[in-house]
Design a protein that fits this description.
alpha/beta; 13 strands; four-stranded parallel β-sheet; 315 residues; seven-stranded mixed β-sheet
């Protein structure tokens, strides 16, 4: 499918102000829309890059859009994708509850959605929901955290965006392990909304109120980076920090002896899997697999960090 000028302009008009779809022209199988949170977070950029690369390889045009974790903006982007007549939507959503209506709207328009990273609170609306096994991954991270902490000491937790089900799942996975050790005491817990800047500020406040903090366990790497920067500025590089995602930034910190560990979820591969399933569904009307699919996570620490690149471990 070749987007004519009228259709292209129409899709831009319907999109949220300031968001420019990235279009890549391929061999004419149609367009796949890829909608994620902000690419300022390398995890979400890796998702978009992986999905776009696979879609282009399979002969599709791509429309890459960013919702900034704003459900209203996401809804308008769905309107743009529907108006453009896309063949499928790859989505990392802007809220488990708030995204159901948008995905249903696309389904009603005959456009299938394939979710990655975050689930929605409904089944039978999206064709696929491919997510990391966040609970399993959080337990891996917590076990490493307990070991690094020597099973004792005061610690703080940075929690992700409350509207994101992954934030709660990861926190539960952490506590189902850590709470088994009575000498590990959580003295502070607060959301930093997946934000590095917010995590820096939150960590500063936590440290002032609890100068004896020995460790920080974070719901994602971006917050872990913000927390570590605040700790470093306060001269507290002795504090153990563990993250979640497997970003290159945290890899580099681990290799330098800063952040101690993270949990890798395969963002790039997960997005590519979603596009492959979309391609199969477009061709046959079925993916051949269940709607909900879990991908296990992997612990990354000083032993294997050098093998990590763009949310994937080399052999």
């Amino acid at each position: 499918m070749i987007l004519n000028r009228r259709l292209f302009v129409g899709s831009l008009t319907a999109a949220v102000a300031g968001i420019l779809p990235t279009l890549s022209f391929a061999q004419g199988k149609g367009t796949i829309a890829i909608i994620t949170p902000s690419h300022d977070n390398p995890f979400f950029k890796a998702e978009a890059d992986g999905a776009a690369a696979k879609a282009t390889e399979l002969g599709y045009e791509v429309m890459v859009l960013v919702h900034d974790d704003d459900a209203n903006k996401q809804n308008e982007l769905f309107d743009s994708a529907i108006a453009a007549g896309v063949k499928a939507i790859i989505l990392d959503n802007a809220g488990a509850d708030a995204s159901v209506a948008a995905v249903q709207k696309a389904k009603d328009a005959g456009i299938p959605s394939f979710l990655i990273d975050r689930e929605i609170t409904a089944t039978g609306v999206a064709v696929s929901q491919i997510v990391s096994n966040n609970y399993q991954g959080a337990q891996l991270g917590a076990e490493e955290f307990v070991k690094l902490m020597g099973e004792a000491g005061d610690y703080a937790e940075l929690i992700g965006k409350e509207s994101d089900t992954n934030a709660g799942i990861r926190s539960k996975g952490y506590h189902d392990v850590i709470d088994q050790y009575p000498d590990l005491k959580m003295v502070a817990s607060q959301t930093a909304n997946w934000s590095q800047t917010e995590a820096y500020s939150v960590m500063e406040s936590m440290l002032q109120a609890n100068p004896g903090i020995k460790g920080v366990i974070s719901g994602n790497d971006t917050m872990a980076m913000g927390a570590y920067a605040a700790l470093e500025a306060a001269g507290r590089t002795d504090v153990i920090v563990v993250g979640f995602d497997g970003s290159n930034d945290v890899r580099d910190s681990i290799l330098k002896g800063g952040i101690k560990a993270t949990v890798l979820q395969p963002a790039y591969a997960q997005a590519q899997m979603a596009v492959e399933q979309a391609d199969k569904f477009i061709a046959s009307g079925s993916t051949g697999v269940e709607e909900k699919q879990l991908m296990d996570c992997v612990l990354v620490n000083a032993d294997n960090a050098a093998k990590l690149e763009t949310f994937a471990l080399s052999a």
